[in-house]
Design a protein that fits this description.
Blueprint (H helix, E strand, L loop, with lengths): L16 H19 L5 H4 L16 E5 L9 E5 L6 H9 L2 E2 L8 E2 L8 H4 L4 H11 L4 E6 L17 H11 L7 E5 L5 H4 L21 E10 L3 E2 L10 E4 L7
Antiparallel strand pairs: 1-2, 3-4, 5-7, 5-9, 6-7, 8-9
Helix pairs in contact: 1-3
């Protein structure tokens, strides 16, 4: 993303991760319908009968990112484990602008790169380095929150609805192993966690989170896990994103 003036500080703040993803997602769905009126499953997350897909989270995740660490969103990663078909890819390439609340004008969009996760992990330069931190192609055992984790259900003191239980289920639904430990970390420990409280946590016209509480979480696995790792409420719109613990310098 870029502004007409080229001023990076006019780009959306990272706290707008969810609404920026929502805006682009709506634009992508509209663009796909103009290309082909039949449902674009990869983008919508709904089957041909209109019902939400069940099973693994295979449809598109729209992940706005601050790859240069300045606190503003300048890239958006669209990741679909099921792949993106012709219509979805054409919709992505046809989108030329998006908007932000309070912005001076539209934000300009252009495709910077496309391909498999392994292709993206080989991108050179500073953008590629930041992207590799997110993708962790070699895997990592310790992961920590990059955007707030919101529990997908109300928390309970025991059973499957504890924080650990819900995270383990979220991981299983994405064919990932259960963690050996789940720790809630103090938001005051790092500036990027402090601002979790200010993240917008509800989509326009969408349902509110079951528990409107932003967590920073550390996950430990017995074996290295590859990214992207994204869990919980609104995970298809950028919340609940994790990165390897040794690479938490960027937001």
């Amino acid at each position: 993303m870029s502004t007409a003036s080229g001023n990076d500080h006019a780009l959306p703040n990272v706290c707008r991760t969810l609404p920026q993803a929502d805006l682009l997602h709506r634009a992508l769905i509209a663009a796909a319908k103009r290309i082909d009126p039949s449902p674009c499953v990869e983008l919508s997350g709904r089957a041909n009968d209109g019902r939400p897909l069940v099973g693994p989270h295979e449809h598109a995740h729209v992940l706005p990112r601050d790859l240069d660490g300045d606190g503003h969103l300048e890239h958006i990663l669209i990741w679909a484990p099921m792949g993106l078909g012709h219509t979805a890819q054409a919709a992505v390439r046809n989108i030329r602008h998006t908007f932000t609340k309070g912005g001076i004008g539209p934000l300009q969009l252009a495709v910077a790169a496309s391909g498999s996760l392994s292709d993206l992990a080989r991108i050179p330069g500073k953008w590629g380095l930041s992207l590799r931190r997110l993708l962790a192609p070699e895997g990592a055992k310790a992961w920590v929150s990059q955007t707030p984790f919101l529990a997908p259900r109300h928390l309970k003191p025991r059973g499957r609805n504890t924080l650990h239980g819900q995270i383990a289920e979220e991981l299983a639904s994405r064919r990932r192993p259960a963690p050996t430990s789940v720790d809630v970390v103090d938001l005051r420990k790092r500036p990027e966690w402090m601002r979790f409280r200010h993240f917008i946590r509800q989509r326009r016209d969408g349902l509110p989170p079951p528990m409107d509480h932003a967590y920073a979480v550390r996950l430990i696995f017995s074996d290295p896990v590859r990214g992207p790792l994204i869990l919980g409420f609104a995970s298809h719109f950028g919340l609940g994103l994790f990165a390897p613990e040794s690479d938490t310098g960027s937001s």
